[in-house]
């Protein structure tokens, strides 16, 4: 069974045959969840991690006032519940946005992988830091940018992640999120999100049709969103040699 985690890590470097085989051996079991199903609830015990093999998921926390703050959107190849490496209980809830397939990943199996393939361990650290920076960018946007800039930044973030999975995606893509979900990720109400999307259309920056979005002027959209191309600034020259 080909590894979706290998696809994700392979976005960064060319994996060796031994590394590919080791990753293929991790995803031998599968579990399917319907749309809206909960994989993990906040404070659940974390006996294992998961690799997302098909579909889209999201993680969120419930705030003291009962509102929801979406933290991450998860796509094929992402590791779900990485917090299980350091915590007994989940710090977030993870649900399926579409029908999804996940592969359970035992911590012991991951420990064996780390010992046998240090470069893969280093890549997992790199991926974790990339996700941390993406969350930092979103947090900075919540506190310092306009509502329209936040929505624009999220559109760019999702399109770039989808394009990494499918390089054939150009300026047009299916977002796959409701306006409420966009709002819960950007600190806005669904009504406010709808207004911001209309403004982006009126500004000639995006177009929408049947659930699909198109970037009409990506340069101006990125400038307005204060988007930083983090992928262009990656430095993985420190990685150890493969085994």
Task: Describe this structure as you would to a colleague.
This protein has 243 residues and is α+β, with helices and mostly antiparallel strands. It has 2 domains: 4-135, Sandwich (Jelly Rolls), CATH 2.60.120.10; 147-225, Winged helix-like DNA-binding domain superfamily/Winged helix DNA-binding domain (Arc Repressor Mutant, subunit A), CATH 1.10.10. It has 8 helices and 11 strands. The strands form 3 sheets. It has a 4-stranded antiparallel β-sheet with strand order 1-8-3-6. Strand 10 and strand 11 (212-215) form a beta hairpin. The longest helix is centred in the middle third of the chain and has 27 residues, at 118-144. The radius of gyration is 18 Å and the shape is globular.
Rounded Rg: 18 Å
**What fold name goes in the CATH topology slot of the largest domain?**
Jelly Rolls
Distance between the termini: 21 Å
Note the overall shape.
Answer: globular
Give the helices and strands as they follow along the chain. HHEEEEEEEEHHHEHHEEH
How many independent structural domains? 2
| Low-confidence regions | none
Most strands sheet:
4 strands, antiparallel
What integer is the average pLDDT? 95
Oligomer: single chain
State the main characteristics.
four-stranded antiparallel beta sheet; Jelly Rolls; Arc Repressor Mutant, subunit A; 11 strands; 243 residues; globular; single chain; alpha+beta
Please describe the topology of this protein.
Layout: H1 4-10, H2 17-24, E1 31-33, E2 38-40, E3 48-54, E4 57-62, E5 68-74, E6 79-80, E7 93-96, E8 100-106, H3 107-116, H4 118-144, H5 147-165, E9 172-174, H6 179-186, H7 190-202, E10 206-209, E11 212-215, H8 218-224
Antiparallel strand pairs: 1-8, 2-7, 3-6, 3-8, 4-5, 4-7, 9-11, 10-11
